[in-house]
Amino acid sequence: MRKFFAVVKREYMQRVRAKMFIVSTILLPLVMSLFILVPAIILSIDTGSPMRLAVVDQTGKVYGHLKGALESDDSRQGADNATRRGGRRFGRFVLQEVNANGQSLDQLRTNLDQRLRARDLDGYLILPPEFLQSGQVEFFNRNPGDLLSNGTLQSALNRAIREQRLIEAKVDTKTRQELFEPVSLQSVKVGDGKAERDSGESFELVFGVGFVMYLAILMYGQIVLGAVIEEKETRIAEILFSSVRPFALMMGKLVGVSLVALTQLAIWGLAFSAFALYGAAALTANGLPARIPRVPFSYYIYFGLFFLLGYFIYATVYALVGSMVTTAQEGGQLAMPIILILVVSFYLFLPVSRSPDSSFSFWVSMLPFSAPVAMLVRIVTQTPPVWQIALSLFIGVCTVFAIMWVASRIYRVGMLMYGKRASIPEAWRWARQA
Amino acid sequence: MGNGNDITVKLDRVSKSFGEFTAVKELSLTVRAGRVFGLLGPNGAGKTTTIRMIVNITAPDSGAITLFGRKIDAELQNRIGYLPEERGLYRRMRVVDQLRFFAELKNVRGKGVEAKIDEWLARVKLSDWKNKRSMDLSKGMQQKIQFITSVIHDPDLLILDEPFSGLDPINVELLKEIVLDLKRAGKTIIFSTHQMEVAERICDDICLLNRSEKVFEGSLRDIKRSFGRNSVAVRCEGGNGVLDDPALVSKLVRHADEAQALLAAGADAQVLLRRLIDAGAVIGKFEMVEPSLNDIFITKVTEAA
What we know:
The complex is a heterodimer. By secondary structure, chain A is an alpha/beta fold. Chain A has helices at 2-17, 19-44, 63-80, 105-117, 131-134, 147-168, 173-179, 201-233, 237-241, 246-285, 297-324, 328-334, 336-347, 349-354, 359-364, 371-381, 386-416, 424-433; strands at 51-57, 93-97, 123-127, 138-141, 188-190, 195-197. A four-stranded mixed beta sheet of chain A has the order 2-1-3-4, with helices on one face. In chain A, strands 5-6 form a two-stranded antiparallel sheet. In chain A, α16 runs antiparallel to α17. The longest helix of chain A has 40 residues, at 246-285. Chain A is elongated. Chain B is α/β, with parallel strands linked by helices. Helices cover 32% and strands 30% of the residues of chain B. Chain B has helices spanning 47-54, 95-104, 111-123, 139-151, 169-184, 196-202, 220-227, 269-278, 293-304, and strands at residues 7-18, 21-32, 36-40, 62-67, 70-71, 80-83, 157-161, 188-193, 205-210, 213-219, 231-237, 249-254, 259-263, 282-289. Chain B has a six-stranded mixed beta sheet, with helices on both faces. A four-stranded antiparallel beta sheet of chain B has the order 2-1-4-5, covered by helices on one side. The A-B interface holds A 2-3, 6-7, 9-10, 14, 18, 230, 234-236, 238-245, 412, 416-418 and B 18, 52, 55-58, 74, 77-78, 80, 82-84, 86-93, 97, 101-102, 104-107, 146, 149-150.
């Protein structure tokens, strides 16, 4: 046991003290925030003045509603500026109504086309007399590719025509407002006789836990693999085996690297929480409701347990691959299927959430590779009996130890064979014979 | 211990196979305490497998191994120092951290370790490199650090597998002195090599292995005495053909200016000398010498075949 801790300590201290660790701990959040911020900044770049739009309203009834609809868009933007992404700002318009004044449609269009070419206008709309019935409208502009402006304009037109149609159907203002009152859907979770409110936040959290697990495995799986290969590449394995059992060595490496992973995740997690709390406080101060997920405390314990379980199950598979190969490159290729299994079990999310108490969901939440995500989904949807949760954890832990045991045997025989790479059947034979 | 009669390692009819291949077959041997025991033989004779069974890295298929009078177990590993032929260091780790780690793996820790590390580094003249990373060390320096990893925990049994390969003569001399010091301090040393000349200079006892089997075991002095002085170093001109007569010489090795002739069974050195003179050879040197370990090995292997 003391030798096991010696291995853990070496693995941890060497990695945490390495420059790589410090640099990546600081750099990764920076890079991530760049990925989020840069598109937002680019989208928010104001490419000039609002779109100048002429409207020929041959119905004589819609222009007012359209102007109202576009202006309400604008004012909503003003209020939400703090949270809304910059994209919406593309949709700003300056409207001007053009009256026919006895001109024919063709004459009007010739005039407007001239103004368009002279860059006096950016576009014009012609609402034909039968617009209210047909809903057909033509939009002439210099830049048909401006999808954002087109979208904004279309939805404003929709609202305008709906408004006018309701007026013509003799629906009064109050009723109209009531008709547009939006729905507020609240799903209520029915547990053991008592109903609790759950606005899907716990579901989002499960998704978050699954995603962090996925990231952690992608980032640290390869490091576990490298750590296992290290003694082969540096030819230290034989010296170590004269002092420590292969199983203790492998476990020590796995735990050591995992503690490094958890340290890094904890640093990021704390930084993120501090940031989020600060952000939430700022939002609350501005009178906006900040959402802090309200889920039962026991959920957080389950999140922690199944996150660790999921991470370790996959990390041990990387250790297993490491025990079979002699170089990190070989290992990288052999590790590809692991990612595939991971992705597939992540998508089991959907069928399990649809019918959490089906026998399919039961088995999927017992199988070690899919259990972490599937069981969490079941817990937040229809919490299964405690024995099922315990059984799932137990199976998972046993799997971790079993895989490590097999890996350490393969590792030892591989070392005795002078660094030969093991094929799968060979590895199997080695595991039994060692 | 160290009075020369205690037994440190005992193998009793030990066998080990890897699939079809038999690495060690029915091997019995005894390593006495406080002596340097040479495990000799060509590449592939089964030396490394034998050692790995002694240090409990791999288990024998049959037979028994006793260490310090006990059946081998993981605890006893802490009393063994092992320098395998296949050896390395953690590249990015500082020398001192590295040595401390290897000591910890033998359950040796605490304040004493630091002093031990300093002492050993001074002994191999690498004190200035204590805080350097091993990737910054030359190959020879790394080899000396590797040697320290096998003795840092003050083992009672030290097993060295080809310890001098790749070292320059000055460092070979340095390590040889250290090994002999350890022997004087009562440690038992098992020394494995295929270089007979090296073994000849430091071993008290030897065991010759060939093709997984023991060819000979005993003290170096005894085996040399049993072979007697039946080897002749000859430098002469002329006398062609006499040295090639199989009735007189069973084996002839020609060096640059002289030849070493192993006398055939029943042949007499005097007869050989007379025949050379009769053949008109001008003799510059004719000297009875002890057979080299190499000669003994070859003779024994041919006898066994």
